[in-house]
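Why this split exists: single-chain examples teach little about how molecules sit against one another. For that reason, every record in the complexes split bundles all components of an assembly together and asks for one structure covering all of them. Below is a record exactly as it appears in the raw files.
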Amino acid sequence: MFASEEFLTASEKFVCIRIETYENKEAEEKVRALLNGRYANTAFCLFDPQGERRLTRSGRGPSAAFSNRGRDGEAIDAGAVARQMNQIAARFKPNRDQTGVVLQDFNSFRQALNVASADQRLLVCVNVEDKHRKNVESNLRDVFSDEEVGGKFHLDFLDPDADKAWSKSIRGKTNQPGILIVRSGKFGLDGVVMATLSHSDDAAVIKSALLDANEKYSNTETRKQYAQHVQSGKRQGVYFENEISREGTSDQPRQNRNRKGRRGR
Amino acid sequence: MKNSFQLSVVIFLVGVATCCAQRNGRSPSGAMNVPDNPQAVGETGVAWYTTWETGLAEAKRSNRPILFMSAATTCSGVSGVF
């Protein structure tokens, strides 16, 4: 449903936030708050622009949130969901001024790689000195507001503390600051730099490089088949450790302490 | 020995199927027909914010409502998959 044209058009009237359920304690608390104390893989809800008032019921997915009255996980009509989303969005008068648009970011480069792999999108990684950041952000606002770019990439700003070891998992030119276009590996544990842009490159140059890279990527990347992906990962001993473990019952997660993952720590 | 191996394979497949079925809201019995990534590679998808803080800041700035989703990017510990 999330890939349907009706849903995508409706989603543009919202600020869409998707967090990783098991990334940290804050995520766990958010999910539990929406599922009456339960902890499960997914949660869904619409909020007002202040993030305080719920505009729909909360549940595992859109079917539980909207008036289709579908049960958790039940397939529902994307058109019906989109129509209800449009009605809800119409209650608010959006600020059309693009000045100061907030850019996407991740809590860590490690999670950015994982999500980019899962979504099968290229990752734009910003590694510039503080003195250049304002100019880079300004250009990226223009680029990511462009309809040819928006929704095709993920964007991460490297954090000096959280991402100290970021380059160890990446092949290619990582020794120079700049804007890197990264292709995440199959399991989101590693990646390769497809192109590096300078902090001084303007929006047109950045856009052109992104679209070129995206074309190469889409011509060489095969859409994932989930069951095969998981089987392959298990055979290879892939294990990605989040702060919160999903072992045991889904309602009783526990903090990771001694779990030994072979990769992706 | 052979039976033991077959049993292990069955248990593994059921585990994978259950995990993926849960995330897709399908019954475990139908889980091995889990579809490909619904988004074509390289095509436009939802423009996600990936932290609550950044998304909330943009929602307040633009006065747009929030579509919030939480999802797991691992299945049985295997990453790179929703």
